[in-house]
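Let us practice reading a record.
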Amino acid sequence: YFEKLLNMAMVGIDGTSDIPTITNIAFAILLVCFLVGLYQSALRGGDLQSLAISAIKYLVVAMLIANWASVFRDVNGSFNAVANFIGNSSGAGDMFLNWMSQLQQQATSNPGLTFWDMITGDPAGTITVLLLIVAYLLYALAMIIFCFFYTLYGAVLYVLGPMVLALIPIAGVGQLGKSYAVNFMIWNCWGVLYAIFGALITAIQVNRVDDILGHGFLGFLVS
């Protein structure tokens, strides 16, 4: 679900002039800094090795900026592919959508059913009901917060990416671009962590509402 929200945000951003404007600013930064690098190299007596290394750095960054939309989507798609593989191989899939679908089926099949009616055979019924209610609320709230920040953070990284990456070859401020690259990779790992948590939930048999309600203690630790 959060992947769809991010794609919607990126499509909306692509419909504006934000990315072309930021890209032009990034190219201007690269050009100015490269000319300054040429001047400094000339002052040092024409250090060709230093000039060649600097030129390669600027060329690589310029290629990334020129194809930024594709690069961003390809990197994010690679991490999402890993997350989907983990989710599908464990049988978890998208935990949030699966749970919402199962709860909707429960409500449709049993319109007058309450939590007390659904929990049968458990001696600790009161504790189970309270924990289930809290778990449902916390899970839904956590997913809303996660999707919001995943989409917002991803949109910020997407828009500001070219301009920040343009700082990488520049001595002194290049650390800002490197920090951006690290945070970009960490953000992409959020989806993989989501899939891992879903696989762990599936491993302890708490991925199905039917298994949770009326079987063992909250669906696991079943004898």
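A brief commentary: The two ends are 35 Å apart (CA to CA).
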